[in-house]
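I have been asked to look over a protein record a colleague put together. Alongside the sequence sits a line of tokens, each denoting a local backbone shape. Please read both lines and tell me whether the tokens look consistent with the sequence. Take the sequence as given and treat only the tokens as open to question. I have pasted the whole thing underneath without changing anything:
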Amino acid sequence: MLGFGLAIEPQLWTLIFTMVRVGAAFIAAPVFGAVAVPVQVRILLSAAIGILAMNVAPITPPAEIFALTTFLSIAAEALVGLSLGFILQIAFAAPFVASEVIGSSMGIGFAAMVDPQNGTATPALGTFLSVLMILLFLSVDGHLVLVELVVDSYTLLPPGQAWLGAEKLRDIAFFGGYAFMAGLLLALPVGFLLLCLNLVVGMLSRSTPSLNLFAVGLPASLLVGVVSLFVAMPAMGDYMLVIVAEALSALRSLVLG
């Protein structure tokens, strides 16, 4: 009997309690939290990984369902799961920061399309870089590493002792600055060439005031931007792998310790 005369199988109640942390991590994490992933698939994945976690670490759910301690335990489990997914989501914001820097300099900041990850209208260049980063994330088995870290979290942060301290929450908040730094570094090769082009166009406008900047500057910035993106794409792809590696290492260091 688990409160108010309700009865539930102990193993089923343990599985439901375990799925809270796993489901919260999948909601906040990229790839798993995409709007294109059906809710039924997320529930089945959460149940499958919950069964795996139950076999890896001993999980003891609260004795009663409708109790204050139960709600606090569920909130603690959701907080840990959301923290695990949120750190990855911060790292995946870097391509959008880079696309804003590059797109505004190239003059294609107005071009937007639907992002398959979030289902909202985002810059077209940002969507392209985001899809590329997702493919790189899957190519290095980042989704499997995320599942492994979620399962390991039951050993390092067992239920009942899962409240994150103020220092960990502060470190997670400070990690948000990494998205801006990584985005600027990702846009650095293309952004530097476009900056040099703008300086040249500015000097031409001062030397020949009669020159139509819109007729010369916009096509030149678009051409230089496309060529520089083509040339710098291998280096940008390598740095995206660095961002993925930093995000996965931050999961263990910031949340799990």
The longest helix spans residues 213-256. Strands lie at 112-114, 121-123.
